[in-house]
Amino acid sequence: MKKRRQTIFYLLFDYVSAIVSWFLFTNLRVMYIEVNEAISGIFIETNVRYVGAIIGIPLLWIALYAIAGYYREVFRKSRLTELGQTFVLSLIGNVVIFFVLILDDHVLSHRAYYSLFFGLFGIHFTLTWLFRFLLTHTTKRRIASGKAGFNTLLIGSNSKALNLYKSLRTNDMEYGYRFVGFVDLDNEPAPVLSEHLPYLGDLENVPKLIREREIEEVIIAIESSEHAEIERILSKLDAPNLIIKVIPALYDVLTGKVRMSFFLGTPLIMLSHATMSPFQSNFKRVFDIVFSLSFLLFSFPLTFFVFLILKFGSKGGVFYTQERIGLHEKPFKIYKFRTMVPDAELHGPQLSSAHDPRITPVGRFLRKTRIDEIPQFINVLKGEMSVVGPRPERRFYIDQILKHAPHYAKLFQVRPGITSWGAVKYGYTENLAQMLEQLNYDIFYVENMSVYLDFKILLYTIGVVLRREGK
User: Fold this and answer.
1) Cα–Cα distance measured from residue 365 to residue 359, given in angstroms and rounded to the nearest whole number
2) In CA terms, which of 37, 128, 295, 351 is 20 to 30 Å from 43?
3) How confident is the model at residue 426 (pLDDT cuts 50, 70, 90)?
4) Residue 252: pLDDT band by 50, 70, 90 thresholds?
């Protein structure tokens, strides 16, 4: 389904409801709550900022909803959950508006303040939720009637896959499943499943199928004997906004290790690439932008001085760019101050070492103090990197690591960072064996991402810089 169009509808409805609610509220104040002040001219004289707020306040509401992650899953909203989210966000936003724009008003009685707050909150919440309910309800009706749905790929071809497909087939419209076909692990699909769904190849075809068939959901239905392959399967499912569901093992159910949702009596675990809540994820991105802009501005005298030294003090360019692999395996150009002699990798990719002769004297100082990485804040502003995240690597070394550790693919679920848990706890790597050891720290970070952990890593990084432990 067209997510962008649906998101625009929600944005438009929220914007209109914010304008209408503020307009109705200001008229309510004049006619009823502050009628005496309106007659005396006090309200009219100070009302200019409230009229201007008709433009600004709706934009602030949109920003609040976006930070809270409301516009992420526009086709999978629960009407009950949406009611609670709208209530909480309306309460938070209106408290801020009340204290910033309304509390300093001159009123004849403090009871008027209660009328003002509850009037603003009641109007805004009612209109916002009403518009959202109509849009969400209409969307669910379209899904239930089969007019809209989610392209779904089934992984597996044995009895579990067949039973799951049969249990969902008769009611798939209610949940929006549109099965486009199935893939098998060993390229030998069970004939019985081929009678119901098109066979689309083996596991290696999955990334291509996700792109070409616009797959939105993947259901993994494999036998217990194939559970050793789950890591290899998940490594093929690194795509943005992809919903992954899997039938749990009996052991997981008995020990309570998983939380399940039931679809027509069939237990399924919903997996997600998102390791942070929408609010934390958006906060992390806002922090990246604000911190990067501030740091680049603050460090400008230093970076300009380094620019002059590299420009006129040695042969070669000032900056060094190299292709790295980032979020969802997208390549990008990383920026650094040059620390090595020109043509340092003339004979192919090489990792740096403690006493690498290719590093210039100035470059050694820049590396120890991490000054050489300051230009990477430009990558952060471009959305290619984050301040904190696993360090991005070159495709040449990624291919080698994946042969020994397929779970390295987990790192593609997040933006790479300027500093990382692996970098501060393990340090730079000089060979493949050290890369594999450092990977444990980066996997830990990806599975435990939080704003708190990011700040902790930043504090560790400051210590590394002050002790000049870079390499």
Assistant:
1) 10
2) 128
3) confident
4) very low
Q: What is the mean pLDDT of the chain?
A: 81
Q: Which two tokens stand for residue 408?
A: 């390295």
Rounded CA gap, 427 and 333, in Å? 23
pLDDT on residue 170: 63
Go through the chain and tell me how many residues it has.
471
Domain boundaries, the chain: 3-144, 150-271, 278-466
pLDDT in tens, 158-184: 777 887 887 777 655 567 788 888 888
CATH number of 150-271: 3.40.50.720
DSSP secondary structure, 52-100, as one string: HHHHHHHHHHHHHHHHTTTTS-SSS--HHHHHHHHHHHHHHHHHHHIII
Shortest CA distance to 109 belongs to which of 45, 33, 29?
33
The whole-model pTM stands at 0.70
With contact defined as beta carbons under 8 Å apart, do 107 and 46 qualify?
no
Backbone dihedral region for residue 156 (phi beyond 0: left; psi -120 to 50: alpha; all else: beta): left
Burial annotation 396-407 (CB, 10 A radius, 16+ → b, else e): ebbeebeeebeb
